[in-house]
Amino acid sequence: WKYAQVRDTRSMNYWIAVNQFTATETVYDIMGTDTVAFSGNLKMAHTTGLKLGDRTNDIDTSREDDPLYMDYVPDERLKKIPVTKRPNSEFPKGKDNIRITPWGPYNFEYPLLWLKQIDSSGLYHFEVLAPSGNWKVNGALGFEITDKGADSFPSHLVAKPISDAAFKEIRLEYSGDVFIDQLGKTGSSGSLFGYEQYHPKQNWNVQWFSWNDTTDPLTHEDAFMQLLKSSPIHQNTYDQLDFTWWGAIGKNLPADSFATVATTTIETEAGFYDIGITADDYVKVYVDGKLFIDAWDPKYTALDELTHHRRLLELSKGIHEFRVVHAERTGIATLMFYMHPQKKPEEKMLFQQKISNH
Q: What pairing do the DSSP bridges indicate for beta strands 308-315 and 33-39?
C-alpha cells in the first residue's frame, strides 16, 4: 500500500514495436492505460487487432503497419541455444486452463492436485494433473475418497470430509518421467503431491478502541496500553481474524487512529507451527501471555512486503491462548492471522495449496 502512495503506478507511455503475432485471437487488449504507440508489428491469422477497455487515452496506431528497421545486437548467451530449439510442450490455452498456485500460474509440467470446487453437499472436487504418467492414493486423513477417475493424467478425485479434525490432507503418489516442480527441483516416481487444510476451532473476541494524541501508540505507549483496559467503542466475535479496512471499521466508527485487541484459544497437537500476522500499521502477538511477534514500528509499513510477519513456534498438546494487539494510524488498515502446522522434511508434499487458518 505504501508503494502506491509514494510511487507513480499508472500504466502509461508504452512503445510496442517490431513484433510478430500469429494465430492470436485478440492481439492487443488494453485498459487502464495512457499513451501507447505501435510501430511495425506484423499480425497474421488473428480475429481482433485491437480491443480497448475502460480508462484508455492516446492510443496511437497510425504507424502500426509501417515497416520499421531496427539495429539488432545479438545476445552472446543465445549461441548456447540451438536456433531450432522449441518448447517440449505447449501450455493448454484459454481461461479455463488457468490455475494460480501459491507459487504462480501452473505450467502443467509437474503433478498437481487442484481443488476445483466444494459443492453444496460439502464434497471436495479435485483435478489430478500432470504432463504424463500415473498416480495412486497414498493416504488420506480426515477425508473419505468417494470417487476417482483413471490412474493416468488428467483425472479427477472426489472426497468427503469425515471428521471435525483441524488438520485434513490427501496424499497422492506419482509414477512416471522425471519432472521439474514449481520450485525448480527435480521430481520422479514416488514423489508425493496432494492437498491439505488446517482449520482449528477458534472464537476470536475482538474489541476496538479509539486513541488520540495523548494515547498515541508510539509516543505514549504506556497510556495507549492503559486505554486498552477501558471500555471498547465496539466489540464482536469472529471465527477467524481476517480484516481489511479501506475506510471506517463500521458504521459510526473511526477509519483512522483506532486500536484492535483480539483474543482466542486454539487447541493444538504437539509440534511446530508456522504463525504469521499481516498488519497495517502496528502489531504485537502474544502466545500464552508471552510476546511472540513484535512489529510495533512504522518501518514495517514502508513497503507492502514488510507488513507480514511470521515465526516458527513449538507448541505442546493442549489449549493455547493467542492475543493480538493492533494499532492503525491512517490509510488502509489490515489485520490477518495465519497458523499452520510445520511438517518434517520427509513428510512434505508438492501441494496444490495449503488452506490454512487465517
A: unpaired
